[in-house]
Structures are given as C-alpha cells and as structure tokens.
Design a protein that fits this description.
This protein is of the alpha/beta class and 216 residues long. The protein has a single domain, classed as Alpha-Beta Barrel (TIM Barrel), CATH 3.20.20. It has eight helices and ten strands. Strand 2, helix 2 and strand 3 form a beta-alpha-beta unit. The chain starts with a strand and ends with a helix. Bound molecules: the ligand O=C(O)c1ccccc1NCC(=O)[C@H](O)[C@H](O)COP(=O)(O)O. The ligand O=C(O)c1ccccc1NCC(=O)[C@H](O)[C@H](O)COP(=O)(O)O binds next to strand 2 and strand 8. Belongs to the TrpF family.
Length: 216
C-alpha cells in the first residue's frame, strides 16, 4: 500500500506553513471566506503565504463560491496552485474554470452523507483533478463545509475510491489514533486534516509529529 500524501489544512501564517512542510506535508490548505468553521483567513494573507511555499508543495485555496466566475475572481486574488471547491457548483460548469485557469488544478469536495454522495462523486470526477471526501453538511441553515473534526462513513469513502479513476483525498476527523485504520480501510491517495493537529487554534508541532509517526 502506498503511503498517502498529507495535506495540512487551516494554515494561518507563514510560520505554520513552514512547520507543516518541515514535518512532511505535500500540500497546504488555505481557507477563504466560509459560512462557518475554525480555519478562515483573509485573501491577502492567503496570497502572502502561498507566495512563500516552494514547489513541489501544493497550495490549495478553499473557496465556498459556487459560481465559476466568482471562483475565478477569488482565485485571482490569491494565486495558489490548486482550487478546492468545498460546496457543490451551481451548474456543472467546470469547463469555464478549465478554460480560464488551465494551469490550476481543481479539487471538488464531496461531503459524504449517504449513497447519493457516491453517485455525486462519480459524476463530478469526470470534470476535476481530484476528489476530497469530507464530513460537512451543506444542507444546514448555516452550511458546514469542513473543519468539523468528525469522521464519516468510511465504507462509503472506500466505495467512492473504488468507483473513480482520479486521486482521492480523505478528510474529516483524522487523528493519530484513527489514521492507520483510515488508510487501511479507504486506501486514499491523500489525507487532509485540520483540527487534530492544533492546540488553542494553533498548529502544534508535537501533534503534527505524532500524526506523521502514526501513519507508519
Ligand atoms: O476549517 C474551516 O474553517 C473550514 C471551513 C469550511 C471548509 C473547510 C474548512 N477547513 C478545511 C478543511 O478542508 C479541513 O482540513 C477538513 O474539513 C478536515 O477538517 P478536520 O475534520 O478538522 O480535520
């Protein structure tokens, strides 16, 4: 089994970016405006952090925009390597994003709720570079689009991984105590985490080290 790549999300400063990279992160998540969640930072700061990150480390802009033109406008302020769309696109207009931003990778988040999530992931996988499975709930009055600290049904995640032909990131409540089981169950291309490696909202080098050690 190949060791998954790790994306550390909710990065909130240049120092946190450096800590995550030094511990082995292959990608960093930079959270733009969201209806809820602990990891949001301003677009100017996202731009500043992204500028300091060397290749081949990827920088993901997390956007809650759902119209292609708004996603493009958000991206243009921050210039990351990748856009992570955390809500469903209103129309499946990925082609407009491809045409306008041909050099940018697209990752679509699917919040794993039920068998409908499997169908959604399979359909969307035709248009993007990777799928990221998370534990939010876009159906709430105040949408929950990530950073929940909760796991979801990994049997569905495994079903999705087997059904799609593009890389899959697993997110949602991953920590040092469940990461081995997550890897063995889902066999994802990548892992994504936020809450479990933080103390009082700050990235905690000790927790980060323990997470990477627990991956094996
Ligand atoms: O952290 C946030 O504020 C957030 C809000 C809305 C969408 C995503 C958000 N966080 C980024 C992530 O993608 C998390 O890494 C992912 O949801 C896993 O978080 P966790 O369960 O806390 O490990």
């Amino acid at each position: 089994m190949t060791r998954p790549r790790v994306k550390i999300c909710c990065i909130s400063s240049v120092e946190e970016a450096k800590i995550a990279i030094d511990h082995g992160a292959a990608a960093l998540g930079l959270v733009g405006h969201m209806p809820s969640g602990p990891g949001v930072i301003g677009d100017e700061l996202i731009y500043q952090i992204a500028q300091t990150v060397p290749p081949p480390i990827a920088t993901f802009l997390l956007t809650s925009e759902t119209k292609p033109q708004d996603i493009i406008a958000h991206y243009q302020k921050v210039q990351t390597t990748t856009i992570q769309i955390v809500d469903a696109l209103e129309q499946r207009e990925y082609q407009m994003l491809r045409d306008e931003l041909p050099h940018v990778k697209l990752v679509q988040v699917i919040h794993v709720i039920d068998e409908g999530s499997v169908r959604e992931a399979v359909e969307v996988s035709r248009f993007v570079d990777a799928i990221l499975l998370d534990s939010g709930n876009p159906n709430l009055a105040i949408k929950e689009l990530g950073g929940t600290g909760r796991t979801h049904n990994w049997a569905l995640s495994k079903e999705i991984r087997k059904a799609i032909a593009i890389p899959l990131f697993l997110a949602g409540g991953l920590n040092k105590d469940n990461v081995r089981q997550a890897i063995e169950t889902v066999e994802p291309f990548g892992l994504d985490l936020c809450s479990s490696v933080r103390t009082d909202g700050r990235l905690d080098p000790q927790k980060l080290g323990a997470f990477f050690a627990a991956m094996g």
